[in-house]
Specification:
24 helices; 15 strands; 3-stranded mixed sheet; 682 residues; 2 domains; alpha+beta; binds zinc ion
Length: 682
Amino acid sequence: MKRKFFYSVVVAASLLTTGCSTKDQSTTNNFDYTVEKFADLQILRYQVPGFDELSLKQKELIYYLTQAALEGRDILFDQNGKYNLRIRRMLEAIYTNYQGNRDNKEYKDLETYLKRVWFANGIHHHYGCEKFIPGFTPEYLKEVILSIDSKTLPLGEGQSVDEFCAEIFPVIFDPTVMPKRVNQADGEDVVLTSACNYYDGVTQDEVEEFYGKMKDANDKTPISYGLNSRLVKENGVVTEKVWKVGGLYSPAIEKVVYWLKKAEAVAENDKQKAVISSLIKYYETGDLRTFDEYAILWVKDTDSRIDFVNGFTESYGDPLGMKASWESLVNYKDLVATGRTETISNNAQWFEDNSPVDKQFKKEEVKGVTAKVITAAILAGDLYPATAIGINLPNANWIRADHGSKSVTIGNITDAYNKASHGNGFGEEFIYSDVERELIDKYGDVTGDLHTDLHECLGHGSGKLLPGVDPDALKAYGSTVEEARADLFGLYYMGDPKLVELGLLADANAYKAEYYNFLMNGLMTQLVRIEPGNNIEESHMRNRQLIARWVLEKGAADKAVELVNKDGKTYVVVNDYQKVRQLFGELLADIQRIKSTGDFEAARTLVENYAVKVDPTLHAEILERYKKLNLAPYKGFVNPTYELITDDNGNITDVVVAYNEGYAEQMLRYSKDYSSLPSVNN
Ligand code: ZN
């Protein structure tokens, strides 16, 4: 349902070096996580640890699923705007064939523009949705186009190069043509004013009327109306053009199905085979009831090591939130990290019994949640190159209520974000001294993951309301208090010897890395995401500042935590980590009391006093220091490559992973090998 993105601006550190000697060629030390930077984007690379330890059959399954994933790429380009495929192909023709000067500013700008189009799967920003402004002129583009062989251009049937330019140029250069991919502005016809390709020739009123008539308020198991089609008006009649074999996007969907059939034949077990079979049936029929059957089978398949998403999934790209963009993710369970969450869950009762919370607010019987941590093998469609780090599906509310949902964290992607942030200057700028930097370098990645696990697996599930207390009693302050409760539960236990005893932390110093990171983030560095003059609104950010400011104030007498000025810059200094832990415990006890008794006034006082307001002088200083680091605000990934190895008789003997492909190289290969849709008339 909700995608989780990588928000942390916290510095992170290298892996704890363990004595583990198992050789896994799918990971290498000294791996370079950074690929390149352009515009507001940074391209990273991720590893797939554990791949070489999978069985041959599992590797083969992953290989087929990655092929099925890559075949859908053109669909997303076309969904994002009807000129996108033509523009991409035109730019790729130039990039590959242009013989002129490639060193001048205009060519460089054109190259950057193409890289942005690849990244956004179209001509609009992947996050902000606004159309890119090219750094080159129409005259320059025309000159370059005329210099290359016109046979390499995506011309329409019988179209001359001049006619092609006349059709395409306004789409690229005219700021009034298709300015936004998704327009949500109140009071406008969001269907007519959005450049996405989910509707053609229909108004918002017509769309709403069309689907309004279909919906039945008494239907307890409604299909996801409109999910897999474009709504068009033909000869005055509003009608759906369904994305399926034999329908819209058929050439690409046929390829997806081809690879899914190969995957079906090597499925790990019957449950998984049934999942793949029903997905194929859905692609072949376009029937949304079949899609729901597929989603239910998928939710229930929890035993398979390998899992995947493949299809029309999230509807953020439709201003009306009905039509889903195509995406795919192939993954396998990270047994080590999932084992960590199991250890936590298995000890849930011990944690509940030993927390500093008043006994009357504790649960007599508590069950931990096991979060599944996965390793992504490929990112595709609307998850490529920019991706979420956590996914929760399916989206249909009745399926979630009746059959549950799967919630996963993508471990190797989080890891790549962490590793790539090494040496980006952030830690050097904001961490007080080498003592803290070394601590965070050594333990920061592990403690960050562990705190998240404690928050998710135990924090939210701990404690209870007193009888008769309204769960919504804290109203607008409820979610900040709830997040603070979960964070504090985790923070308190980070410093407990039990975690070392359970093998979750290496030694009794490790927790200090999380304490320092948490306080620095809550007191200072999370402010880089707030515009000058604004308050903090988002509940996770409020909760972090609440905890950090409260501990700073309550620990002031003992100087447990201080804000120190050194050479005109502000830093967090922690003098007494055990005192900090004690304060986390005290605040946890009070926050749990507030929650358990529904004490609205106390919630309001805490949140308004500590969580909302920003010190404008400190804020300005942090923004200024952050700006100088020149970090790209958005990141995306290139995928590894997978090669099928066969013997002389054509039998598959192995699947080999490599990480040597560059960004442009990968994009051009995908455009060559996985591009089956025509440039026009999709
Ligand atoms: Zn939470």
